[in-house]
Specification:
Blueprint lengths: L14 E4 L41 E2 L3 E5 L2 E2 L9 E2 H13 L2 E4 L1 H8 L11 E7 L5 H13 L4 E4 L12 H10 L2 E4 L12 H17 L6 E3 L7 H9 L4 E3 L33 H9 L3 E2 L5 E4 L10 E3 L4 E6 L5 E8 L3 E13 L10 E5 L2 E3 L1 E9 L6 E8 L2 E3 L2 E9 L5 E9 L1
Helix pairs in contact: 1-3, 1-7
The structure holds calcium ion (2 copies).
The site of one calcium ion (CA) has 6 residues, from strand 15 and strand 24.
Length: 428
């Protein structure tokens, strides 16, 4: 996984809210009033659903929800990455109740790339994965998916295939015929970023050749441990894969979303529910309609000596964001508007430090589809206690009419060490 070079850390989860603009008297921590006079609640780090979900939110498709399960078993085990059937069913029933339609990576990308009609893209697409080669998938996970009318992409480790406890080729062919996708999950599930070029070829090209020898196309790759770097991506692409998937963090609290931006095809994110994940965390993830910029960005310009643009983690993976360290650093985020109309764009950003709570506001420049957009700040939240007190808040862009189709927001840093973006919200 690309490791952050960011030096700021959030030491605690308690928050103190400070409204720098239009701030009335008598505010207590956790409450405020934003510039529009609306109640401005504290934004919990990493948690979703800070505002009620508007009925119209599926009108915009930004980052795509994705759930990956490492294992589903009948009873509890000591494996922290395995969940029980009951948990699995409960999570996916919650997704179904929210209107999510699950589809494989293959189907989703076919639609995203115009090889299948957009009308086939669900209002709320959910990419589902299982990184399990063992028969336990066919015995326990697949029946739950059939109950719900869901299909998943199965990541296979080819070194396991000869084992008596692995799914047989016949079983896998049957799943494929049902609409499950067979993808490569390496040969022996090692950290690809630690391998020599020759070893990497075994884990990438070699695994694909084995799957193809069994008659599977193996179009897509799933990084073991979610770990990748530039050399790994280059090898996975050179081996003929069309896309690859990572994870957001070691558990679902770190989020993890996929993106249909073609430039992110080998960096698809995904969330990972594990044994310790609570239902509340899974529901918060499912209800997060915002575009998590760290999972959607594409670098436009990255110069300077302060650091390269890559996601940063806060507080034990509960909260991920994207710092642009150098003046001139620039990223884009694409989103699809399905129905034309007037939309409001809002971003959660770093607004300054405790010493200068709105000092970073002037460091941001926004362009929407090439046109400069003014921004207005909203409430700020101050992580507290903290070694380096970053003040978070929001920027509202002017309401704008958007036609159906893809749109692109570009964020550029005008000053050093000022710009950090958490998420983008696009709402009617
Ligand atoms: Ca830079
Ligand atoms: Ca984020």
């Amino acid at each position: 996984m690309a490791s952050g070079s960011w030096r700021w850390k959030v030491a605690g989860s308690a928050l103190l809210l400070a409204c720098a603009e239009a701030s009335p008297e008598g505010l207590t921590p956790g409450q405020g009033v934003d510039a529009g006079g609306q109640s401005c609640q504290d934004l919990p780090l990493g948690a979703a659903g800070d505002r009620p979900v508007k009925a119209g939110w599926p009108q915009v498709l930004g980052t795509v929800h994705c759930l990956d399960y490492d294992g589903v078993v009948p009873d509890t085990t000591d494996d922290p990455y395995v969940v029980t059937i009951e948990t699995y069913r409960r999570h996916l029933q919650a997704a179904k109740a929210r209107g999510f339609a699950a589809l494989t990576m293959e189907k989703a990308l076919e639609i995203a790339d115009g090889k299948a009609p957009w009308a086939l893209m669900p209002e709320r697409p959910l990419l589902l994965f299982s990184d399990v080669t063992a028969q336990v998938f066919a015995d326990h996970a697949a029946p739950v998916l059939r109950e719900l009318g869901y299909r998943a992409t199965i990541g296979l480790e080819t070194a396991i295939l000869p084992q008596p406890w692995a799914m047989s080729i016949q079983t896998l062919k049957g799943l494929e015929a049902e609409g499950f996708e067979i993808a490569s999950h390496s040969h022996s599930h090692v950290d690809l970023t630690a391998l020599s070029p020759a070893q990497l070829e075994v884990e990438v090209d070699g695994a694909r050749a084995i799957l193809q020898g069994h008659g599977f196309e193996a179009k897509h790759y799933i990084y073991p441990l979610g770990a990748w770097n530039a050399a790994v991506v280059a090898r996975v692409e050179a081996a003929g894969h069309l896309a690859a998937r990572a994870t957001g963090s070691p558990d679902i609290r770190g989020g993890g979303f996929a993106s249909f931006d073609p430039a992110r095809r080998f960096k698809l994110g995904c969330a990972l529910p594990v044994a310790t994940s609570t239902d509340a965390e899974v529901l918060a993830y499912l209800d997060d309609r915002r575009i998590q910029v760290e999972d959607a960005f594409v670098t436009q310009a990255d110069g300077g000596a302060n650091g390269t643009i890559e996601p940063a983690n806060f507080g034990a993976d509960t909260f991920r964001s994207l710092p642009l360290h150098d003046a001139g650093d620039s990223i884009r985020v694409r989103f699809l508007v399905r129905r034309g109309g007037t939309y409001h764009l809002r971003l959660r950003v770093k607004r300054g430090t405790s010493a200068a709570p709105s000092g970073a506001d002037a460091g941001y420049r926004y362009h929407l589809d090439g046109a400069a957009m003014a921004h207005r700040p909203r409430c700020a939240t101050v992580p507290e206690p903290s070694l380096d007190t970053v003040v978070w808040g929001e920027h509202d862009l002017d309401a704008t009419d958007l036609d159906p189709g893809w749109h692109e927001l570009v964020v550029t840093a005008l000053t050093d060490w000022s710009v950090v973006i958490d998420w983008l919200d696009v709402s009617p």
